[in-house]
Amino acid sequence: MLEQWDIDQAICVSHTSKENTVLRSGISPEKVFMVPNAVDTAMFTPSPKRLSCDEIVIVVISRLVYRKGADLLVEVIPEVCRLFPKVRFIIGGDGPKRVRLEEMREKFSLQDRVEMLGAVPHAQVRSVLISGHIFLNSSLTEAFCIAILEAASCGLLTVSTRVGGVPEVLPDDMIVLAEPAPEDMVRAVKKAIDMLPGIDPQVMHLRMKKLYSWDDVAKRTEIVYDRAMQSSTTNLLDRLPRYLTCGSWAGKLFCIVMIINYLLWRLLEFLQPAEGIEEVPDIGPLHAQLDSRDDLCEAEENRI
């Protein structure tokens, strides 16, 4: 149980993740905080030109592995293409399940409607996203899913499996959820296609800027770290018995690692005491610095 280990505070990216952590580890809920991920909205922006809906492009960017639901895509894509002749897929990503997707494309003769990009560098993800109208996430398990944030920030309507913390990520009018089953995912795609005329990518992007900010994440994370720093410290002799409860072999191994770390820390403290290390000053937010600098310049001008 983590409650018996060296856990002062913990951070989870969703309420679902927090619940799982508390249930599986035994750590007190008061020690676990929910701090979501965020998205760089300055990097992930919609296309300046709104895409025509004459052809609907569904984008998938994911590792092509079992956990990401690649097997679901193999069943969903042919059915969506059969029902909607104007739909085309762009799939970015690589992995062991890529072969199955390529076989599916060959089997149903979808070479002109399913484009396989392979691995996509993160710097090029936006250029792929803004080529589409809908982002499709088929994960079987997910604590949060930053890819959904990136897609929404680019103005794409999301269709996703209802797993893990995904239902917490976006408001209901920005995402269509489905059970991780082919029939329900096809239903969700159909619903998303019907919703597209009412989706404004620029408005969606502005909403994402308000919903998710790395500045906000940093502030909330700092609060948790401050709480951890204020927690009462426990000496090594009191902590070692906790590690022994981790297992007959793992517990002993953890104890050895902790003892080595402790001795290394004492050696470094002897060679270079902490008192002799200069601390980084807290310079505050950039906007506060700029305001202060402007005030100084104005005061100097008035003096002259």
Automatic annotation (TrEMBL):
Residue ranges the record marks as coiled coil: none
Keywords: Glycosyltransferase, Transferase
UniProt xrefs under SUPFAM superfamilies: UDP-Glycosyltransferase/glycogen phosphorylase
Entry annotated with the keyword Kinase: no
Organism annotation: Urochloa decumbens
Annotated Gene3D superfamilies: Glycogen Phosphorylase B
UniProt domain Glycosyl transferase family: residue ranges: 54-194
Name listed for the protein in its UniProt record: Glycosyl transferase family 1 domain-containing protein
Entries under InterPro entries matching the protein: Glyco_trans_1 (IPR001296)
